[in-house]
């Protein structure tokens, strides 16, 4: 009997829901482990407090002496929460979070010791981080990287460690993490949006980008997950036949949450509350054992940190509940995959959501301005937006017959489509008083503040307007949201800068009134951006043809898609918006291409190993049983055995054919991998992995999955799909 699988299955019966005591109100514990505004008031001197607040709102520098006061307050608070260590918490380009813990504890001679944490330790650290990916930046500049405190994301205590959110940059100033370019992009969109807001309200001083992510994931019994080397090493199943029952019945979607999963979620939510992550929604997703978690939206930088932190916390809490969380975009073939919808909007310090229709014609004109500029930005940079979500794992969703497709398009719903059609007919040049009144009353004024058709919206669109925000749905469930948020905010910033220039141009050169100028520019934008608007089914074949006619990109694989990141257009864009210089842009590209190669390489190795060392020997063992059986029949029945052994003989041959199929394809794959490894040019290497090595996975899998159907269940070593997916 294949021991690991059956041992794991037996263990599942001992895995009962783990109930965690909770008798507190969530609102009472919310943020209890966060060094937030109210805690800072308590632990910091007035001067220190004001200094942090101004760093948060205005980005002002914190004086070194004040930093000492802040660190002392922070340390006292952290120790009161049980912390013994501190760490600079950052997000290197591996996608995961990184931390290196140091104790507060220090000796001061004569056998004495104190707890110490000074301003220098708070503000800047030099982790020995030479093995984080840097795309050659640090080699080129022979500079070490350092982490620097980001006061806009509050410090928190997790376990016994004070975590200080930081950026990670090289000494020459190049970003080595996800956060640095994101902060710069948020600054860019703030500046550009404030300038445009002044057309409508002179009081606006700051615009924040908001992000509300929705995290999808699978929860699998940890024993079962561990019994599969592919899940352990690659985060997904590389083979496995689909179960007799899949998700056809839709009986999991929004159904009752199973007990063990519920206990996990409650525990997780409590942890999130303590950490100030405002999780709010939980429900079952489409596939069996698939779930979703969503918070109340927050300022984008904080929301990105919270999503990264959440993914860590999810892993840790899962251990207590004997679960393994699968974040992979496609852990099971033939079963719905996971994404991470990024809900995005812009809001002012005067409390206005710029992507929410308002109550007056003026506020609606402001809404339309931001709405149309976003559409234009997405149209102009659709390929870059696609590149921002490219990864080996997300390729299984985008462009692989699963919504959303690899083609970026924008869904806006019937009501706004109608409004844009009306605006398209606005007079060229100055508007007559009647036309303006008519526009204000009948077009702009008629946008309801609740957009009905967006409640029942198109779920296949990669970028949809959903009433008061845009929802970027093509982001992968494993992704760090910083990547997509950096690109989205940068392209919108650039677009708003261009818009302002055009409107100002019409006002000063064509002597137009402000409103006339805005209407004129928006009209042209609507005309130009039409190809990106699509209301239909995003993964119907007809759309691919149509999109091609419209000139939209359809980059189905990561190596293809990533190229847009280093196009001249992209490099110029990031430079102009001060988000990344050319070196940073190119370094990131290299890191991502390399990561793609590594992922496919690992998958190839693991698949080869499982196919040859698990599947083939099992098939041979079963074949031998069949052979013994045939021999026995022959012994007993003599010449007439053939009739009785017909099926067995047939099976014996089928098994041999599949074994041959596996061996020849694994050999081929190994050779192709060797060839690919010998290619120096990184782009060509990635393309070889993508187009030559990876397609062989399917052939190998085909034969393995066929064998799974033929071989005695008792012998099969790999935990099956039905067991992984339907064990609750
Ligand atoms: P869905 O139907 O797609 O699950 P929800 O209405 O539940 O969508 O919202 C999903 C996410 O969108 C939540 O995280 C929510 O906080 C976020 N969200 C709501 N309004 C905004 C907004 N103005 N800006 C950004 N995110 C928002
Ligand atoms: Mg959603």
C-alpha termini separation: 24 Å
Total number of β-strand segments?
17
Q: By helix and strand content, what is the structural category?
A: alpha+beta
Percent of residues in helices comes to 40-55%
Regions with pLDDT < 50 over 5+ consecutive residues? none
* Percent of residues in β-strands: 5-15%
Shape field: globular
Name the bound molecules. Answer: adenosine-5'-diphosphate, magnesium ion
Q: How many strands, which pairing sense, and closed or not: the largest β-sheet?
A: 9 strands, mixed
Whole-number average pLDDT?
91
Tally of separate helices = 26
Q: Cα-atom Rg, whole angstroms?
A: 29 Å
Structure description:
The chain is of the alpha+beta class and 728 residues long. Strands 9, 10, 11, 12, 13, 14, 15, 16 and 17 form a 9-stranded mixed sheet that branches. Strands 1, 2, 5, 6, 7 and 8 form a 6-stranded mixed sheet that branches. Strands 3-4 form a two-stranded antiparallel sheet. A hairpin with a 2-residue loop joins β3 and β4. α24 (646-677) packs antiparallel against α25 (682-710). The longest helix is centred in the last third of the chain and has 56 residues, at 582-637. The protein is globular and about 105 Å long. The model has no long low-confidence stretch (mean pLDDT 91). Adenosine-5'-diphosphate is lined by residues 210, 212, 214, 281, 294-297, 341, 343-345, 353, 468-469. Magnesium ion (MG) is lined by residues 214, 341, 471.
């Amino acid at each position: 009997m294949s021991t690991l699988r059956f041992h794991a299955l037996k263990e599942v019966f001992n895995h009962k829901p783990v109930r965690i005591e909770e008798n507190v109100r969530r609102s009472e514990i919310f943020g209890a482990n966060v060094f937030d505004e109210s805690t800072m008031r308590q632990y910091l001197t007035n001067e220190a407090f004001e200094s942090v607040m101004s760093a948060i709102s205005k980005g002002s520098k914190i004086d070194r002496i004040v930093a000492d006061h802040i660190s002392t307050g922070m340390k006292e608070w952290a120790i009161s929460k049980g912390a013994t260590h501190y760490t600079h918490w950052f997000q290197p380009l591996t996608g995961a979070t990184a931390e290196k813990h140091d104790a507060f504890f220090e000796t001061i001679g004569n056998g004495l010791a104190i707890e110490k944490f000074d301003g220098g330790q708070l503000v800047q650290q030099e982790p020995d981080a030479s093995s984080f990916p840097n795309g050659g930046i640090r080699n080129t500049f022979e500079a070490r990287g350092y982490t620097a405190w980001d006061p806009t994301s509050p410090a928190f205590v997790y376990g016994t460690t004070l975590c200080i959110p930081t950026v990670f940059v090289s000494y020459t100033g190049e970003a080595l993490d996800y956060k640095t370019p994101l902060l710069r992009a948020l600054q860019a969109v703030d500046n550009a949006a404030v300038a445009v807001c002044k057309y409508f309200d002179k009081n606006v001083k700051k615009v924040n980008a908001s992000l509300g992510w929705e995290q999808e994931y699978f929860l699998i019994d940890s024993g079962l997950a561990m019994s599969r080397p592919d899940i352990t090493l690659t985060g997904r199943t590389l083979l496995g036949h689909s179960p007799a029952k899949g998700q056809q019945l839709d009986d999991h979607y929004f159904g009752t949450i199973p007990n063990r999963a519920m206990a996990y979620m409650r525990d997780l939510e409590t942890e999130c509350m303590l950490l100030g992550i405002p999780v709010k929604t939980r429900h079952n997703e489409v596939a069996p054992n698939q779930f979703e978690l969503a918070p109340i939206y927050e300022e984008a930088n904080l929301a990105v940190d919270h999503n990264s932190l959440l993914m860590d916390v999810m892993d840790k809490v899962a251990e207590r509940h004997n679960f393994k969380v699968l974040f992979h975009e496609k852990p099971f073939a033939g079963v719905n995959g996971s994404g991470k919808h990024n809900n995005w909007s812009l809001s002012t310090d005067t409390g206005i959501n710029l992507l929410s229709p308002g109550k007056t014609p003026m506020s609606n004109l402001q809404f339309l301005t931001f709405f149309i500029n976003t559409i234009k930005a997405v149209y102009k940079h659709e390929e870059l937006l696609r590149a921002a979500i490219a990864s080996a794992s997300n390729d299984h969703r985008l462009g692989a017959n699963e919504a959303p497709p690899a083609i970026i398009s924008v869904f806006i719903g019937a009501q706004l489509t109608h409004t844009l059609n009306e605006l398209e007919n606005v007079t060229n040049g100055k508007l007559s008083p009647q036309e303006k009144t008519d526009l204000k009353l009948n077009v702009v004024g008629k946008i309801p503040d609740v957009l009905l058709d967006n409640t029942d919206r198109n779920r296949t669109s990669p970028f949809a307007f959903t009433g008061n925000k845009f929802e970027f749905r093509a982001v992968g469930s494993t992704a760090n949201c910083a990547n997509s948020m950096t690109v989205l905010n940068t392209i919108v910033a650039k677009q708003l800068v261009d818009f302002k220039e055009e409107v100002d141009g019409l006002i000063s050169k064509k002597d137009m009134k402000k409103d006339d100028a805005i209407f004129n520019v928006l009209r042209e934008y609507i005309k130009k951006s039409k190809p990106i608007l699509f209301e239909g089914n995003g993964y119907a074949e007809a759309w691919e043809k149509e999109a091609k006619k419209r000139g939209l990109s359809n980059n189905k694989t990561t190596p293809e898609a990533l190229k847009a990141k280093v196009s001249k257009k992209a490099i110029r864009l990031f430079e102009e918006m001060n988000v990344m210089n050319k070196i940073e842009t190119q370094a990131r590209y290299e890191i991502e291409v390399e990561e793609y190669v590594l992922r496919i390489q690992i998958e190839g190795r693991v698949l080869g190993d499982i196919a040859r060392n698990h599947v083939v020997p099992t098939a041979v063992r079963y074949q031998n049983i069949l052979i013994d059986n045939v021999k026995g029949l022959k012994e007993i029945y003599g010449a007439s055995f053939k009739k009785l052994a017909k099926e067995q003989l047939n099976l014996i041959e089928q098994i041999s054919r599949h074994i041959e199929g596996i061996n020849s394809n694994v050999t081929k794959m190994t050779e192709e991998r060797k060839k690919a490894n010998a290619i120096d040019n990184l782009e060509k290497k990635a393309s070889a992995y993508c187009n030559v090595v990876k397609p062989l996975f399917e052939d190998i899998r085909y034969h393995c999955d066929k064998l799974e159907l033929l071989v005695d269940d008792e012998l099969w070593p790999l935990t099956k799909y039905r067991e992984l997916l339907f064990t609750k």
